[in-house]
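Students often ask why we bother predicting the structure of a whole assembly rather than each chain alone. The short answer is interfaces. A chain on its own may look different once its partners are present, and contacts between molecules only exist in the joint model. In this exercise we take two input lines together and write out one structure for the complete complex. Read the inputs first and try to guess which parts will touch.
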Amino acid sequence: MNFFGVGLGLATLLIIGLGFVWVIRGEYYFGYLWWPYVLGAGLVAIGVSLMVPWAWGSALLGAAGASLIWGATELKEQAVRGEIGWYPFNPKRKPQPPFIEIIRRWPAPHL
Amino acid sequence: MSLNWMGLLAAFATFLSIWLGHVGVRKLEAAAPALWVPASLAAAAGLTLEAGALFTHSLYLSGVFGIVGMTLLFDALEFYRQHRRVAHGHAPANPRNPRHARLLAEHPAATTINWLEREPTGHPVKLETLPAHPEQV
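Now the answer. The structure tokens for the assembled complex follow.
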């Protein structure tokens, strides 16, 4: 029997579960406008996964990259959830991402 | 240097799974009169894919089946969690669905409004002061 897929499925479920945690924390401390950088990090992770010769390493990096891309699409909705009181709202000033004025003009993606 | 496509396949499988778990579950839950139907189908599909992952000799197929199958098993539970979100007003109810119509009648917070369909403002807002649809702003 081949346990690779079942193990990878469980690990991916954990990665997706962690995605919920970092999206909530990340939006709280940094704000949603960092989404292009999160999206870029996901694409880089998938790109690097192509060069990892080990099946497990490549697969986990690919799954983590996809999870980062999803997280980038979730940050805006999480910001709204905080503002309408479904999650704690952070009133402190958040660190601004580089090129924030350009990012503000882009529609934040969401699923 | 030869490329290892396992990561890219895993990424596609993961993104597809997340999409199914978010958009797919949301749409099916809103349309299904009885939750046990889509939940059972998702569980059966998940178990089938996990069995496929165990018995295939291909590492690629095993990986994709494993990821999609495991998340489908979780999606079977997610239908019930989505039902609770609708009851709490955290997801819009579909009044044409009798199960949602009951939620709208029995839970004061249940609504047909999707409160998340708006741009962030940068400050806290009271739900009751928001327009039902952002285009009314």
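Check your guess against this: Chain A has a mean pLDDT of 96.
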